[in-house]
Design a protein that fits this description.
about 300 residues; alpha/beta; eight-stranded mixed sheet; 8 strands; disordered N terminus; binds 1,4-dihydronicotinamide adenine dinucleotide
Length: about 300
């Protein structure tokens, strides 16, 4: 793990109070890295059962970080765990959770109408200075922000899975994001130990706009029978230095997620052949073969 993981007091950042909405895979990771960096974090989800699972997941993950970072000094590791965990408050009360926030990061389901509902409701109760950000992978930040009266204090903060491990943070500024908001988002990203890059509000931002077409082309090659799944993956790993092959990666991300992304882009850009629907992908999804999480996708996996 990079030494960047533990960056408490690394920067005196104006953003100290964070509210993360959505305690799933991404939201729990975002809350964790912010707490590790010393932010006060409120993590919100729809019910207490989910929040209990989220808090357990965070605890396990922080313990893993402490074990690696404080290998030589287990007592400092214990302190790090206790202090980081103390920084996180859990809540199901969305309006109350944003009243002290400097920054709200949204990591709920990838549905425009649900994100609109959330942002228009918290826009009315959050303080004037609060910055809103979405962690969306495939939706337009401008469109998400459109329901608020703070389009200048709205941007994208796109993290990568698993958040505590992946170093990159894409900071997305729309045409309406102010310089001040952008600077604050960049400073916060660095303060929580991420390497930040800047991108316009363009579909897929940088990483997914380049990576998803590779995955889709790999699926098309496999569908045509040009090469086996294993050989396509070996080729990209050993021939292009990719840490994972494209079909392995598609299985890891989830074939339903890949399908949702390509369907969304195809609807928006019907003339771009890169985003054309793929029969074999649709078939696997229809059969419930979604990749690692269901035990089968392009490969078979042992169920955990
Ligand atoms: P997830 O399904 O693991 O978690 C979503 C959480 O949001 C759930 O716990 C759900 O109960 C909660 N939620 C749903 N509606 C809510 C509401 N109205 N208020 C409060 N909580 C609500 O999803 P995941 O994978 O964490 O994705 C979240 C967002 O992050 C999506 O926009 C996705 O596009 C984006 N993203 C996902 C990545 C991934 O690899 N899974 C990578 C980067 C971004």
């Amino acid at each position: 793990l990079p030494s960047l993981v533990f960056v408490r007091n690394f920067a005196s950042n104006v953003i100290q109070n964070i509210t993360v909405v959505g305690g799933g895979l991404m939201g729990s990771g975002i809350a964790q890295v912010a707490a590790q960096a010393g932010n006060s974090v409120t993590l919100v989800d729809v019910n207490d059962d989910l929040l209990k699972k989220t808090s357990q997941r965070i605890e396990t993950s922080i313990q893993r970080v402490a074990k690696k970072v404080y290998k030589e000094k287990p007592e400092d590791g214990e302190k790090f765990i206790t202090e980081s965990l103390k920084k996180i408050t859990y809540s199901t009360d969305i309006p109350a959770s944003v009243t002290k926030a400097d920054l709200v990061v949204e990591a709920i389901v990838e549905k425009m109408d649900i994100k609109h509902k959330l942002f228009s409701s918290i826009d009315k109760v959050a303080p004037e200075h609060t910055i809103f950000a979405s962690n969306t992978s495939s939706l337009s930040i401008t469109e998400i922000a459109s329901v608020t009266n703070r389009k200048d204090r709205f941007g994208g903060l796109h993290f990568f899975n698993p958040v505590p491990v992946m170093k990159l943070l894409e900071v997305i500024r729309t045409n309406e994001t102010s310089d001040e908001t952008y600077q604050k988002m960049m400073a916060w990203g660095k303060a929580i130990g991420k390497v930040t890059i800047t991108c316009k509000d363009t579909p897929g931002f940088v990483v997914n706009r380049l990576l998803v077409p590779i995955l889709l082309e790999a699926i098309r090659m496999y569908e045509r029978g040009d090469a086996s799944a294993r050989d396509i993956d070996i080729a990209l790993k050993l021939g292009a230095g990719h840490p994972m092959g494209p079909l392995e990666l598609a299985d890891y991300v989830g074939l339903d997620t890949n399908k949702n992304i390509v369907d969304g882009w195809h609807a928006k850009f019907p003339d771009n052949p890169l985003f054309n629907p793929i029969d074999s992908l649709n078939k696997l999804v229809a059969e419930g073969k979604l990749g690692v999480k269901t035990g089968e996708g392009f490969y078979k996996y042992e169920k955990k």
